[in-house]
Here is the input.
Amino acid sequence: MIEFFINGQPVQAEDNQTVMQAAKANGFFIPYFCWHPQLSVPGNCRICMVEVTNEGQAEGTGWLEIACNMPISKGMRVLTDSDKVKKRRKETLQFITLNHPVDCGICDKAGECTLQDYHYEYNGSPSVSRDVKVHATKHYPLSDRIVLDNERCIMCTRCVRFTREVSKSNSLGVQSRGDHSLIRPVEDGSFETDPYSDNVIDICPVGALLSRPFLHKARVWYLEPTASVCPGCERGCNVKLWHRKTEWKLKALDPQQNARIDRVTPLENDAVNGPWICNKGRDLAQVFERARAEQAMLKGEAVELQAAIVIAREMIKAARRPVALVSNWGSNEELAAFYGALGPRFACHVKRDWQPAPGERLEDDLLIKPDKNPNSAAALALFPALPADPRTAFPPDTDLVLVWGEGFSFAQLPPKARIIYLNSWLQPENGHADVFLPVSVQTERSGHYTNFQGAVSAFEACFAKKAGVADAETLFGAMGAAS
Ligand code: SF4
Ligand code: SF4
Ligand code: FES
Here is the structure.
Protein backbone atom coordinates (compact mmCIF):
# COMPACT_ATOMS: atom_id res chain seq x y z
CA MET A 1 0.00 0.00 0.00
CA ILE A 2 1.09 3.56 -0.69
CA GLU A 3 0.10 6.63 1.30
CA PHE A 4 -0.61 9.87 -0.53
CA PHE A 5 -2.91 12.87 0.05
CA ILE A 6 -6.18 13.97 -1.54
CA ASN A 7 -7.33 17.47 -0.57
CA GLY A 8 -4.98 17.30 2.43
CA GLN A 9 -6.34 14.01 3.75
CA PRO A 10 -4.06 10.93 3.94
CA VAL A 11 -5.25 8.09 1.68
CA GLN A 12 -4.07 4.48 1.40
CA ALA A 13 -4.02 2.99 -2.10
CA GLU A 14 -2.77 -0.08 -4.00
CA ASP A 15 0.64 0.33 -5.65
CA ASN A 16 -0.68 0.13 -9.20
CA GLN A 17 -3.75 2.35 -8.83
CA THR A 18 -4.32 5.59 -10.69
CA VAL A 19 -5.42 8.77 -8.90
CA MET A 20 -8.95 8.19 -10.26
CA GLN A 21 -9.15 4.62 -8.91
CA ALA A 22 -7.71 5.55 -5.53
CA ALA A 23 -10.00 8.57 -5.24
CA LYS A 24 -13.09 6.51 -6.05
CA ALA A 25 -12.08 3.75 -3.62
CA ASN A 26 -11.68 6.35 -0.86
CA GLY A 27 -14.92 8.26 -1.52
CA PHE A 28 -13.51 11.33 -3.35
CA PHE A 29 -15.35 12.39 -6.48
CA ILE A 30 -13.54 13.39 -9.65
CA PRO A 31 -15.69 13.95 -12.77
CA TYR A 32 -15.07 11.78 -15.85
CA PHE A 33 -16.50 11.14 -19.30
CA CYS A 34 -14.13 8.86 -21.22
CA TRP A 35 -12.90 6.79 -18.28
CA HIS A 36 -14.87 3.63 -17.47
CA PRO A 37 -13.77 1.10 -14.84
CA GLN A 38 -14.12 -1.81 -17.30
CA LEU A 39 -12.47 -0.18 -20.34
CA SER A 40 -8.98 0.95 -21.34
CA VAL A 41 -7.91 4.53 -20.56
CA PRO A 42 -7.74 6.86 -23.59
CA GLY A 43 -7.43 10.09 -21.56
CA ASN A 44 -9.18 12.11 -24.23
CA CYS A 45 -11.93 14.13 -22.51
CA ARG A 46 -9.67 15.99 -19.99
CA ILE A 47 -12.53 16.66 -17.56
CA CYS A 48 -10.84 14.66 -14.78
CA MET A 49 -8.01 17.19 -14.39
CA VAL A 50 -6.58 17.48 -10.84
CA GLU A 51 -3.72 19.51 -9.38
CA VAL A 52 -0.71 17.39 -8.41
CA THR A 53 2.32 18.21 -6.26
CA ASN A 54 5.01 15.59 -5.69
CA GLU A 55 6.57 14.81 -2.30
CA GLY A 56 9.16 17.45 -1.46
CA GLN A 57 7.77 19.98 -3.96
CA ALA A 58 6.72 23.42 -2.66
CA GLU A 59 3.03 24.31 -2.21
CA GLY A 60 1.58 26.24 -5.15
CA THR A 61 3.98 24.66 -7.68
CA GLY A 62 1.55 21.86 -8.58
CA TRP A 63 0.67 21.05 -12.18
CA LEU A 64 -2.57 19.91 -13.79
CA GLU A 65 -2.81 16.24 -14.73
CA ILE A 66 -5.61 13.87 -15.75
CA ALA A 67 -6.55 11.68 -12.78
CA CYS A 68 -7.62 8.68 -14.88
CA ASN A 69 -4.11 8.10 -16.26
CA MET A 70 -1.93 9.40 -13.42
CA PRO A 71 -0.27 6.66 -11.33
CA ILE A 72 -0.09 7.46 -7.64
CA SER A 73 3.24 7.78 -5.86
CA LYS A 74 4.23 7.97 -2.21
CA GLY A 75 3.61 11.33 -0.60
CA MET A 76 1.98 12.83 -3.72
CA ARG A 77 -0.54 15.62 -2.97
CA VAL A 78 -3.66 15.82 -5.13
CA LEU A 79 -6.22 18.63 -5.14
CA THR A 80 -9.54 17.84 -6.79
CA ASP A 81 -11.20 21.25 -6.42
CA SER A 82 -8.50 23.95 -6.33
CA ASP A 83 -9.05 27.23 -8.20
CA LYS A 84 -6.68 26.04 -10.92
CA VAL A 85 -8.72 22.83 -11.33
CA LYS A 86 -12.05 24.65 -11.35
CA LYS A 87 -10.85 27.09 -14.02
CA ARG A 88 -9.55 24.28 -16.27
CA ARG A 89 -12.73 22.22 -15.80
CA LYS A 90 -14.83 25.18 -16.85
CA GLU A 91 -12.66 25.72 -19.94
CA THR A 92 -12.86 22.01 -20.79
CA LEU A 93 -16.66 22.09 -20.57
CA GLN A 94 -16.74 25.21 -22.77
CA PHE A 95 -14.66 23.28 -25.31
CA ILE A 96 -16.73 20.08 -25.12
CA THR A 97 -19.98 21.99 -25.63
CA LEU A 98 -18.56 24.19 -28.40
CA ASN A 99 -20.43 22.31 -31.13
CA HIS A 100 -22.98 20.57 -28.90
CA PRO A 101 -26.59 21.33 -29.88
CA VAL A 102 -27.73 21.68 -26.21
CA ASP A 103 -31.09 20.17 -27.16
CA CYS A 104 -31.60 18.63 -23.71
CA GLY A 105 -35.32 19.44 -23.88
CA ILE A 106 -35.87 16.70 -26.48
CA CYS A 107 -33.06 14.35 -25.44
CA ASP A 108 -33.88 10.98 -23.80
CA LYS A 109 -30.63 11.17 -21.79
CA ALA A 110 -31.78 14.31 -19.94
CA GLY A 111 -31.90 13.46 -16.24
CA GLU A 112 -29.12 10.86 -16.61
CA CYS A 113 -26.60 12.85 -18.68
CA THR A 114 -23.22 13.54 -17.08
CA LEU A 115 -22.55 16.42 -19.52
CA GLN A 116 -25.73 18.12 -18.30
CA ASP A 117 -24.82 17.46 -14.65
CA TYR A 118 -21.22 18.67 -14.96
CA HIS A 119 -22.25 21.73 -16.94
CA TYR A 120 -24.55 22.81 -14.10
CA GLU A 121 -22.01 21.90 -11.44
CA TYR A 122 -18.78 23.23 -12.93
CA ASN A 123 -19.57 25.65 -15.76
CA GLY A 124 -23.05 27.11 -15.96
CA SER A 125 -21.99 29.87 -18.37
CA PRO A 126 -23.22 30.35 -21.93
CA SER A 127 -20.86 29.62 -24.80
CA VAL A 128 -18.14 32.23 -25.35
CA SER A 129 -17.73 31.24 -28.99
CA ARG A 130 -18.89 33.62 -31.75
CA ASP A 131 -18.52 30.99 -34.50
CA VAL A 132 -21.46 29.01 -35.76
CA LYS A 133 -21.62 25.44 -34.50
CA VAL A 134 -20.37 22.63 -36.73
CA HIS A 135 -23.34 20.48 -37.66
CA ALA A 136 -23.32 16.69 -38.03
CA THR A 137 -25.80 13.86 -38.62
CA LYS A 138 -28.70 14.22 -36.16
CA HIS A 139 -30.35 10.86 -36.71
CA TYR A 140 -27.98 8.13 -37.86
CA PRO A 141 -29.60 4.65 -37.61
CA LEU A 142 -26.70 2.67 -36.17
CA SER A 143 -28.83 -0.49 -36.05
CA ASP A 144 -32.47 -1.56 -35.71
CA ARG A 145 -32.05 -0.97 -31.98
CA ILE A 146 -29.92 2.17 -31.68
CA VAL A 147 -29.95 5.67 -33.15
CA LEU A 148 -26.87 7.93 -33.10
CA ASP A 149 -26.96 11.72 -32.81
CA ASN A 150 -23.48 12.83 -33.91
CA GLU A 151 -24.02 16.42 -32.78
CA ARG A 152 -24.38 15.29 -29.16
CA CYS A 153 -21.34 12.96 -29.32
CA ILE A 154 -18.35 14.22 -27.28
CA MET A 155 -15.96 11.68 -28.90
CA CYS A 156 -15.13 9.93 -25.63
CA THR A 157 -14.83 6.64 -27.64
CA ARG A 158 -16.37 4.53 -24.88
CA CYS A 159 -18.69 2.92 -27.45
CA VAL A 160 -15.79 2.10 -29.78
CA ARG A 161 -13.72 0.61 -26.95
CA PHE A 162 -16.72 -1.42 -25.74
CA THR A 163 -17.02 -3.21 -29.08
CA ARG A 164 -13.25 -3.80 -29.17
CA GLU A 165 -12.62 -4.81 -25.58
CA VAL A 166 -15.87 -6.26 -24.20
CA SER A 167 -18.24 -7.53 -26.89
CA LYS A 168 -15.26 -8.09 -29.27
CA SER A 169 -17.33 -7.34 -32.37
CA ASN A 170 -14.94 -4.49 -33.34
CA SER A 171 -17.95 -2.98 -35.00
CA LEU A 172 -17.66 0.76 -34.26
CA GLY A 173 -14.93 3.22 -35.17
CA VAL A 174 -14.11 6.90 -35.59
CA GLN A 175 -14.19 8.42 -39.07
CA SER A 176 -12.38 11.69 -39.98
CA ARG A 177 -10.57 14.02 -37.60
CA GLY A 178 -11.07 17.08 -35.39
CA ASP A 179 -14.53 18.63 -35.28
CA HIS A 180 -15.50 16.48 -38.29
CA SER A 181 -14.96 13.23 -36.37
CA LEU A 182 -17.91 10.85 -36.51
CA ILE A 183 -18.69 7.55 -34.81
CA ARG A 184 -19.64 5.07 -37.55
CA PRO A 185 -20.28 1.32 -37.71
CA VAL A 186 -17.95 -0.87 -39.78
CA GLU A 187 -19.40 -1.80 -43.13
CA ASP A 188 -19.86 -5.53 -42.60
CA GLY A 189 -22.97 -5.03 -40.46
CA SER A 190 -21.38 -6.59 -37.36
CA PHE A 191 -22.77 -3.91 -35.02
CA GLU A 192 -26.27 -4.96 -36.09
CA THR A 193 -25.56 -8.56 -35.01
CA ASP A 194 -23.58 -7.77 -31.83
CA PRO A 195 -25.78 -9.33 -29.08
CA TYR A 196 -24.35 -6.87 -26.53
CA SER A 197 -24.76 -3.71 -28.62
CA ASP A 198 -27.26 -1.95 -26.31
CA ASN A 199 -24.65 -1.60 -23.57
CA VAL A 200 -23.24 1.35 -25.54
CA ILE A 201 -26.49 3.22 -24.77
CA ASP A 202 -25.77 2.94 -21.04
CA ILE A 203 -22.10 3.83 -21.23
CA CYS A 204 -22.49 6.79 -23.60
CA PRO A 205 -22.12 9.66 -21.12
CA VAL A 206 -24.35 11.92 -23.23
CA GLY A 207 -27.47 11.51 -25.36
CA ALA A 208 -25.64 10.47 -28.54
CA LEU A 209 -26.63 6.79 -28.45
CA LEU A 210 -30.28 6.15 -27.79
CA SER A 211 -32.57 3.14 -27.76
CA ARG A 212 -34.97 3.17 -30.71
CA PRO A 213 -37.77 1.24 -28.94
CA PHE A 214 -37.54 3.69 -26.00
CA LEU A 215 -37.08 6.83 -28.13
CA HIS A 216 -39.24 9.68 -26.77
CA LYS A 217 -41.46 7.18 -24.88
CA ALA A 218 -40.92 8.62 -21.38
CA ARG A 219 -38.81 11.13 -19.47
CA VAL A 220 -36.60 9.12 -17.13
CA TRP A 221 -37.71 11.07 -14.04
CA TYR A 222 -41.24 9.67 -14.52
CA LEU A 223 -39.83 6.13 -14.19
CA GLU A 224 -38.42 4.05 -11.36
CA PRO A 225 -36.47 0.77 -11.41
CA THR A 226 -37.33 -2.53 -9.73
CA ALA A 227 -34.50 -4.98 -9.09
CA SER A 228 -35.01 -8.17 -11.07
CA VAL A 229 -33.26 -11.09 -12.77
CA CYS A 230 -33.25 -11.82 -16.49
CA PRO A 231 -34.76 -15.27 -17.10
CA GLY A 232 -33.30 -15.41 -20.63
CA CYS A 233 -30.53 -17.89 -19.77
CA GLU A 234 -28.88 -19.65 -16.84
CA ARG A 235 -26.52 -16.67 -16.28
CA GLY A 236 -29.40 -14.89 -14.50
CA CYS A 237 -28.09 -11.36 -15.13
CA ASN A 238 -29.28 -8.82 -12.57
CA VAL A 239 -31.41 -6.15 -14.21
CA LYS A 240 -33.47 -3.09 -13.45
CA LEU A 241 -37.01 -3.14 -14.82
CA TRP A 242 -38.04 0.49 -15.36
CA HIS A 243 -41.72 1.39 -15.09
CA ARG A 244 -43.92 4.42 -14.41
CA LYS A 245 -43.79 5.93 -10.90
CA THR A 246 -47.15 5.80 -9.12
CA GLU A 247 -47.17 9.59 -8.66
CA TRP A 248 -46.71 10.06 -12.43
CA LYS A 249 -49.43 7.60 -13.38
CA LEU A 250 -50.99 8.32 -16.80
CA LYS A 251 -54.68 8.97 -16.25
CA ALA A 252 -56.12 9.59 -19.69
CA LEU A 253 -54.54 6.72 -21.56
CA ASP A 254 -54.74 2.94 -21.50
CA PRO A 255 -54.18 1.96 -17.81
CA GLN A 256 -51.90 -0.83 -19.05
CA GLN A 257 -49.32 1.90 -19.81
CA ASN A 258 -48.84 2.28 -16.06
CA ALA A 259 -48.05 -1.41 -15.69
CA ARG A 260 -45.64 -1.93 -18.55
CA ILE A 261 -41.87 -2.34 -18.68
CA ASP A 262 -40.56 0.83 -20.32
CA ARG A 263 -36.94 -0.27 -20.51
CA VAL A 264 -34.47 -2.75 -19.02
CA THR A 265 -30.93 -1.84 -17.91
CA PRO A 266 -28.20 -3.82 -16.10
CA LEU A 267 -28.06 -3.96 -12.32
CA GLU A 268 -24.35 -4.23 -11.61
CA ASN A 269 -23.36 -7.45 -9.83
CA ASP A 270 -19.70 -8.50 -10.02
CA ALA A 271 -20.56 -12.10 -9.08
CA VAL A 272 -22.97 -12.54 -12.02
CA ASN A 273 -22.90 -10.05 -14.91
CA GLY A 274 -20.70 -7.10 -13.92
CA PRO A 275 -22.21 -3.95 -15.47
CA TRP A 276 -23.41 -5.64 -18.70
CA ILE A 277 -26.39 -7.57 -20.07
CA CYS A 278 -27.14 -8.91 -23.55
CA ASN A 279 -29.83 -7.52 -25.85
CA LYS A 280 -32.19 -10.39 -25.03
CA GLY A 281 -32.31 -9.06 -21.48
CA ARG A 282 -33.28 -5.62 -22.84
CA ASP A 283 -36.27 -7.16 -24.59
CA LEU A 284 -37.89 -8.73 -21.53
CA ALA A 285 -41.09 -6.74 -22.07
CA GLN A 286 -41.72 -9.04 -25.04
CA VAL A 287 -41.59 -12.02 -22.66
CA PHE A 288 -43.58 -10.60 -19.76
CA GLU A 289 -46.15 -8.68 -21.76
CA ARG A 290 -47.52 -11.61 -23.77
CA ALA A 291 -51.25 -12.28 -23.50
CA ARG A 292 -51.99 -13.65 -20.04
CA ALA A 293 -54.15 -16.52 -18.88
CA GLU A 294 -56.35 -15.16 -16.10
CA GLN A 295 -59.16 -17.71 -15.86
CA ALA A 296 -59.18 -21.08 -14.10
CA MET A 297 -60.78 -23.78 -16.26
CA LEU A 298 -62.01 -27.37 -16.18
CA LYS A 299 -61.61 -28.86 -19.67
CA GLY A 300 -61.87 -25.37 -21.14
CA GLU A 301 -64.93 -24.35 -19.08
CA ALA A 302 -64.38 -21.29 -16.88
CA VAL A 303 -64.71 -21.94 -13.13
CA GLU A 304 -63.83 -20.15 -9.91
CA LEU A 305 -60.17 -20.59 -8.96
CA GLN A 306 -61.12 -22.16 -5.61
CA ALA A 307 -63.36 -24.76 -7.30
CA ALA A 308 -60.50 -25.69 -9.66
CA ILE A 309 -58.10 -26.08 -6.73
CA VAL A 310 -60.52 -28.43 -4.92
CA ILE A 311 -60.86 -30.63 -8.02
CA ALA A 312 -57.07 -30.67 -8.52
CA ARG A 313 -56.57 -31.69 -4.88
CA GLU A 314 -59.05 -34.57 -5.25
CA MET A 315 -57.36 -35.72 -8.47
CA ILE A 316 -53.97 -35.75 -6.74
CA LYS A 317 -55.36 -37.71 -3.79
CA ALA A 318 -57.00 -40.29 -6.04
CA ALA A 319 -54.07 -40.76 -8.43
CA ARG A 320 -52.15 -44.05 -8.26
CA ARG A 321 -49.20 -43.22 -10.54
CA PRO A 322 -48.86 -39.42 -10.78
CA VAL A 323 -45.98 -37.72 -12.62
CA ALA A 324 -45.02 -34.03 -12.37
CA LEU A 325 -43.09 -31.93 -14.90
CA VAL A 326 -41.39 -29.20 -12.88
CA SER A 327 -40.71 -25.74 -14.33
CA ASN A 328 -37.14 -24.42 -14.42
CA TRP A 329 -38.67 -20.92 -14.39
CA GLY A 330 -39.94 -21.57 -10.86
CA SER A 331 -38.17 -19.50 -8.20
CA ASN A 332 -36.19 -21.09 -5.37
CA GLU A 333 -39.17 -20.41 -3.09
CA GLU A 334 -41.68 -21.98 -5.50
CA LEU A 335 -39.49 -25.04 -6.03
CA ALA A 336 -39.16 -25.48 -2.27
CA ALA A 337 -42.94 -25.11 -1.88
CA PHE A 338 -43.55 -27.72 -4.58
CA TYR A 339 -40.96 -30.06 -3.04
CA GLY A 340 -42.52 -29.75 0.42
CA ALA A 341 -46.19 -29.93 -0.53
CA LEU A 342 -46.30 -32.24 -3.56
CA GLY A 343 -42.78 -33.60 -4.23
CA PRO A 344 -43.20 -36.94 -2.35
CA ARG A 345 -46.58 -37.58 -4.04
CA PHE A 346 -45.26 -37.40 -7.63
CA ALA A 347 -42.49 -38.87 -9.76
CA CYS A 348 -40.88 -35.53 -10.64
CA HIS A 349 -38.81 -34.44 -13.64
CA VAL A 350 -37.43 -31.01 -14.49
CA LYS A 351 -38.38 -29.84 -17.97
CA ARG A 352 -36.82 -26.99 -19.95
CA ASP A 353 -39.53 -24.39 -20.36
CA TRP A 354 -37.61 -22.49 -23.05
CA GLN A 355 -35.40 -23.73 -25.88
CA PRO A 356 -32.99 -21.51 -27.88
CA ALA A 357 -34.81 -19.50 -30.56
CA PRO A 358 -33.75 -20.04 -34.21
CA GLY A 359 -30.56 -18.06 -34.87
CA GLU A 360 -30.05 -17.14 -31.20
CA ARG A 361 -26.44 -17.15 -29.96
CA LEU A 362 -26.02 -20.29 -27.85
CA GLU A 363 -22.99 -19.42 -25.77
CA ASP A 364 -19.98 -17.11 -25.60
CA ASP A 365 -17.13 -16.11 -23.30
CA LEU A 366 -18.88 -13.04 -21.91
CA LEU A 367 -22.37 -13.80 -20.50
CA ILE A 368 -24.62 -15.84 -22.77
CA LYS A 369 -25.18 -19.46 -21.68
CA PRO A 370 -26.73 -22.40 -23.58
CA ASP A 371 -29.59 -23.20 -21.18
CA LYS A 372 -32.19 -20.50 -21.92
CA ASN A 373 -33.93 -20.79 -18.54
CA PRO A 374 -33.15 -19.00 -15.27
CA ASN A 375 -33.35 -21.64 -12.56
CA SER A 376 -32.26 -25.05 -13.84
CA ALA A 377 -29.56 -25.24 -11.14
CA ALA A 378 -32.04 -24.99 -8.26
CA ALA A 379 -34.63 -27.26 -9.93
CA LEU A 380 -32.07 -29.95 -10.76
CA ALA A 381 -30.74 -29.88 -7.19
CA LEU A 382 -34.18 -31.18 -6.12
CA PHE A 383 -35.38 -33.33 -9.01
CA PRO A 384 -33.89 -35.27 -11.97
CA ALA A 385 -34.00 -33.86 -15.51
CA LEU A 386 -36.67 -34.97 -17.94
CA PRO A 387 -35.12 -37.74 -20.13
CA ALA A 388 -34.17 -36.87 -23.72
CA ASP A 389 -37.14 -38.99 -24.85
CA PRO A 390 -39.85 -37.54 -22.58
CA ARG A 391 -42.16 -40.51 -23.16
CA THR A 392 -39.85 -42.65 -20.99
CA ALA A 393 -40.71 -40.42 -18.01
CA PHE A 394 -44.25 -41.82 -17.98
CA PRO A 395 -44.79 -45.39 -16.72
CA PRO A 396 -47.53 -47.23 -18.68
CA ASP A 397 -50.03 -46.85 -15.84
CA THR A 398 -49.48 -43.06 -15.40
CA ASP A 399 -52.92 -41.73 -14.52
CA LEU A 400 -52.16 -38.09 -13.72
CA VAL A 401 -49.63 -35.56 -14.99
CA LEU A 402 -49.10 -32.17 -13.39
CA VAL A 403 -47.44 -29.84 -15.90
CA TRP A 404 -45.96 -26.66 -14.42
CA GLY A 405 -44.93 -23.95 -16.88
CA GLU A 406 -44.74 -23.76 -20.65
CA GLY A 407 -42.63 -25.51 -23.27
CA PHE A 408 -44.05 -29.06 -23.19
CA SER A 409 -46.19 -30.47 -25.98
CA PHE A 410 -49.32 -32.15 -24.65
CA ALA A 411 -49.03 -34.59 -27.59
CA GLN A 412 -46.20 -36.26 -25.64
CA LEU A 413 -48.36 -36.93 -22.59
CA PRO A 414 -49.83 -40.43 -22.00
CA PRO A 415 -53.24 -40.30 -23.76
CA LYS A 416 -55.20 -41.67 -20.82
CA ALA A 417 -53.63 -39.58 -18.06
CA ARG A 418 -55.58 -36.68 -16.60
CA ILE A 419 -53.81 -33.31 -16.66
CA ILE A 420 -53.39 -30.50 -14.15
CA TYR A 421 -51.76 -27.52 -15.86
CA LEU A 422 -50.24 -24.42 -14.24
CA ASN A 423 -49.33 -21.70 -16.72
CA SER A 424 -49.27 -17.90 -16.97
CA TRP A 425 -49.85 -17.37 -20.68
CA LEU A 426 -52.81 -17.63 -23.02
CA GLN A 427 -52.01 -20.83 -24.93
CA PRO A 428 -54.13 -23.50 -26.66
CA GLU A 429 -53.02 -26.24 -24.21
CA ASN A 430 -54.75 -24.43 -21.34
CA GLY A 431 -58.19 -25.49 -22.57
CA HIS A 432 -57.14 -29.13 -23.02
CA ALA A 433 -56.15 -29.66 -19.37
CA ASP A 434 -58.62 -31.33 -16.99
CA VAL A 435 -57.76 -28.57 -14.54
CA PHE A 436 -56.11 -25.33 -15.63
CA LEU A 437 -54.72 -22.96 -12.97
CA PRO A 438 -53.44 -19.49 -14.01
CA VAL A 439 -50.30 -18.45 -12.12
CA SER A 440 -48.53 -15.15 -11.51
CA VAL A 441 -45.38 -14.09 -13.40
CA GLN A 442 -42.02 -12.89 -12.13
CA THR A 443 -42.99 -9.19 -12.31
CA GLU A 444 -45.91 -9.81 -9.91
CA ARG A 445 -44.05 -11.55 -7.08
CA SER A 446 -40.67 -11.58 -5.38
CA GLY A 447 -38.25 -14.50 -5.20
CA HIS A 448 -34.78 -15.78 -6.02
CA TYR A 449 -33.06 -17.69 -8.84
CA THR A 450 -29.81 -19.65 -8.54
CA ASN A 451 -27.57 -19.37 -11.57
CA PHE A 452 -25.28 -22.00 -13.12
CA GLN A 453 -22.42 -20.92 -10.82
CA GLY A 454 -24.55 -21.12 -7.68
CA ALA A 455 -24.96 -17.33 -7.32
CA VAL A 456 -28.38 -16.49 -5.88
CA SER A 457 -30.08 -13.31 -7.15
CA ALA A 458 -33.28 -11.69 -5.93
CA PHE A 459 -36.16 -10.27 -7.96
CA GLU A 460 -38.93 -8.02 -6.67
CA ALA A 461 -42.54 -7.49 -7.71
CA CYS A 462 -43.18 -4.32 -9.71
CA PHE A 463 -46.82 -4.78 -10.77
CA ALA A 464 -50.01 -5.93 -9.02
CA LYS A 465 -51.10 -9.52 -9.65
CA LYS A 466 -53.84 -9.92 -12.27
CA ALA A 467 -57.27 -10.69 -10.88
CA GLY A 468 -57.97 -14.42 -11.07
CA VAL A 469 -54.36 -15.61 -10.92
CA ALA A 470 -52.54 -17.07 -7.92
CA ASP A 471 -48.90 -17.55 -6.97
CA ALA A 472 -47.68 -21.08 -7.71
CA GLU A 473 -46.42 -21.30 -4.11
CA THR A 474 -49.98 -20.76 -2.80
CA LEU A 475 -51.41 -23.28 -5.27
CA PHE A 476 -48.94 -26.00 -4.29
CA GLY A 477 -49.77 -25.50 -0.61
CA ALA A 478 -53.52 -25.67 -1.33
CA MET A 479 -53.27 -28.71 -3.60
CA GLY A 480 -51.11 -30.59 -1.11
CA ALA A 481 -53.29 -29.79 1.90
CA ALA A 482 -54.97 -32.76 3.64
CA SER A 483 -58.54 -31.76 2.72
S1 SF4 B 1 -21.40 8.14 -29.14
FE1 SF4 B 1 -21.35 8.43 -26.90
S2 SF4 B 1 -20.02 6.76 -26.18
FE2 SF4 B 1 -19.65 6.99 -28.38
S3 SF4 B 1 -17.93 8.40 -28.54
FE3 SF4 B 1 -19.78 9.64 -28.68
S4 SF4 B 1 -20.18 10.30 -26.62
FE4 SF4 B 1 -18.74 8.63 -26.47
S1 SF4 C 1 -26.81 -13.25 -20.80
FE1 SF4 C 1 -28.64 -14.47 -20.33
S2 SF4 C 1 -29.37 -13.79 -18.34
FE2 SF4 C 1 -27.91 -12.23 -19.13
S3 SF4 C 1 -29.20 -10.70 -20.14
FE3 SF4 C 1 -28.58 -12.18 -21.68
S4 SF4 C 1 -30.22 -13.72 -21.74
FE4 SF4 C 1 -30.46 -12.55 -19.86
S1 FES D 1 -11.88 10.82 -17.71
FE1 FES D 1 -9.79 11.34 -17.64
S2 FES D 1 -9.42 12.16 -19.59
FE2 FES D 1 -11.48 11.54 -19.72
About this structure: The pocket of iron/sulfur cluster (ligand 1) is lined by residues 153-159, 183, 204-206, 208-209 (CB under 6 Å). The chain has a mean pLDDT of 96. The radius of gyration is 28 Å. The chain has four domains: 2-95, 99-211, 223-288, 297-480.
